[in-house]
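Run folding on both entries below.
>entry_1
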Amino acid sequence: MILKVIFDFIISIIGLILLLPFLALMSIAILFESGFPILHRREVHSSSSKTFNFYKFRTMYKDADKRLEILLKNNPEIKLEYETYYKLKNDPRITKLGNILRQLSLDELPQLLNVVFLQMSLVGPRPKTTFELNKYFDKKDHQLLFSVKPGITCIWQISGRSNIDYAQRVEMDLDYAKNRSFIMDMKILFETPIALLKKDAV
């Protein structure tokens, strides 16, 4: 929808301008705590075959991938949790500052750049890595999933977030893609800050 694209672009530009001092302070804090890089780039899909890099403030230690490999290899319970939720509640890979940024979802703010670059939307299914796409989504659902741009926030982020297993997130993402509307987007945007303040929004 053209209205959605225009709305996303304008709000993201305004947001980046207003948040610039805060973004600079967070960048300096990350630099002092754990050095460069300040931003984390993750390759995600815009279609079944096309990818782009989306941005987040780096919240993990630089050797996070190696730490995860060791964790999953030596801890069956942690491996089951990761396979169910695709994240860990008590993740030892996350820095102290990173934990604060994640709890408040401030690590997601650089994705406003992706919206300005027309790669993402403010609201939509969360971006999917190749691993997520292959493991959790049937190929028959790809066309529906990619009929909308991935978003900074989504329906399952206001409905329990980490307490929702990945299978439920898949259903919610596909349901959003099927029934999306501008009014639904406004509802999700309005409820996102409220969800972040809840105790289970980790």
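>entry_2
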Amino acid sequence: MAEYSLGINELDDIIGGIRGGTNLMVIGPPMSGKEDIINHVMYSGLLENNASIIVSTRDPGEDLLEWFDQFHDNIDMLHIGIVDCVTKTLGMSASDTANIKRASSPVDLTGIGVRISQYFEQFCMKEKVPGVRLCINSLSTILMYSNIQTVFRFLHVFTGRVKAVKGLGIYVVENEMHDPQTIATLKQLFDGMVEIKAIDSGHAMRVVGLTPKPTPWFDYEIDCATISLKECE
């Protein structure tokens, strides 16, 4: 069975590999570096010759692609597929490219789903890439436009697709934007979580659900694609 890593050594050493078909929620407060963390996880996959499918509800596809392009000497840029939910929302005219497919807006779950499926077919069926990662950034933005029942059904399809292809799914949630019932409903679809919280020195993260007990909390610093961790005292 395919195994994945987060590309964060301290956590990977404790977890000992993430089995293929795992879906993880990344949950934490705003301005905590969640986007940098998930970009790092997706970049780490590209280093391992995985494909990375990223649904962006925050940044235009070109802006996100630019982050990865700074490492183009290390990775296969053709293994990045971005579903851009932003550009058309802003009223900008832009065509699809090899790396970017456009959805009309974050409310267009049908269009988003079609484009995710196209990338799954491309990477898993046609190109047979060894491992595929799906990241949706973020569920919180999608929930601003759709109710929890609709989003749950949408997620049920794609968490199931990740399991079927033995991939790795990463889904971002702002924990201060939703009531406890919404979070509890979403958690049903996931095998574990990367939890982030504010601490005196900044922010800390831990992983829950992939080991018999949660990992320790780690203080972290982010420098582009490098994440440095130090166990909290």
